[in-house]
Task: structure prediction
Amino acid sequence: MIKKCEHTGCTKAGTCRAPKSRDLKEYWFFCQEHAAEYNKNWNFYANMTADEIEDDWERQTFGAPLRDKNDANADAADYVKFINDFISGRAEFDKQPPAKKTPGPVSAALTTMGLAPGATWRDIGARYRALAKKYHPDTAKDVKNAATEFTKITNAYDVLKKHFGKK
Ligand SMILES: [Zn+2]
Result:
C-alpha cells in the first residue's frame, strides 16, 4: 500500500522517503515535490549545530538571532538617541532666522572699498570720503592709477548706496 505524502495538506502519493532525523531510523514519506523541498532544507541544515540552525531560523524570522537580542536593543537605543539628537538639533537649526545673504555685487563693492562684510552705512561713508580724497583725479595727481581707482571706488560706492537705499 502506498502512503499519502506526509506534507500537511498534500494529497499526492508519498513515494519518496526522507529521513526524519540524522540517525536515519525514521522516515517521512513525501511526494517528489515535497521530498525535494524537505531535502533542500535538510541539506541546508545538515552541517549546522542545533544552535546555528536556531540562529538561522531566528535571523530569517526576526532579522537577527535572538541570542544577540541585548546587543540589538543597545544598537536600537543608540540609534533612537542619534535620531532624537538629530531631530532636536535640526529643530534648533530651523528656529534660527535664515542668514541674511549679502548679494555678490555688494560684498564685491565692500571688498573694493576695503571694508568688512558687516560694514554700516556710516563706515562706508567715512571710507568713501577718505578714499575719494586720496584718489580724486584733481587732488591725486601723484598717485598711480588714481583715476582708475577713483572710478572703481565710486562704482562700489554707488552699489552700496543703492543697497542701503541711499540717494
Ligand atoms: Zn506532497
In short: The helical segments are 32-46, 50-62, 69-95, 104-112, 121-135, 146-163. The pocket of zinc ion is lined by residues 5, 7, 10, 12, 30-31, 33-34 (CB under 6 Å).
